[in-house]
Amino acid sequence: MQRKALLLQHCHQYVAQRHGTIALAMQDIQQSLDEETKSSAGDKHETGRAMMQLEQEKLSRQLAEVQQLQHVLERISLDEPSPNIGEGSLVKTVQGNYFIAISAGKVELDGELYFLVSMASPIGAALAGRKAGETFPFRGENILIEQVA
Fold first, then answer.
1. Please, what is the average pLDDT of the chain?
2. Residues β-bridged to residue 60
């Protein structure tokens, strides 16, 4: 499998794992809310219920973020390489290798380290629209882009 396809697959797995974790947490909260309804009323009951509802709202926001990441991944096409850096680009610089998709940490393939970054990240924004052979300023250094795939 092509390197870019493997990196994109890793991004999809990252999103699926986050989605699963959030879904489980939401199930646990819903179950707790259902059980809380069956228990006695009072201030303690209301405080506990309010805390669980706040956590449920927080998880709902996280779920929306994960769905947005999924939409970003769905837009990435590996069929049409572009000389300009954008979503789906695999970029080799003198400082490191970057796959422009979503911010999902780093992964090692065939002994090489790749940073999975979004266009909105500082390095993604600095790379956006550039081509191989160009240099760009980042954190006080001028970095050479060796290759864009």
1. 91
2. none
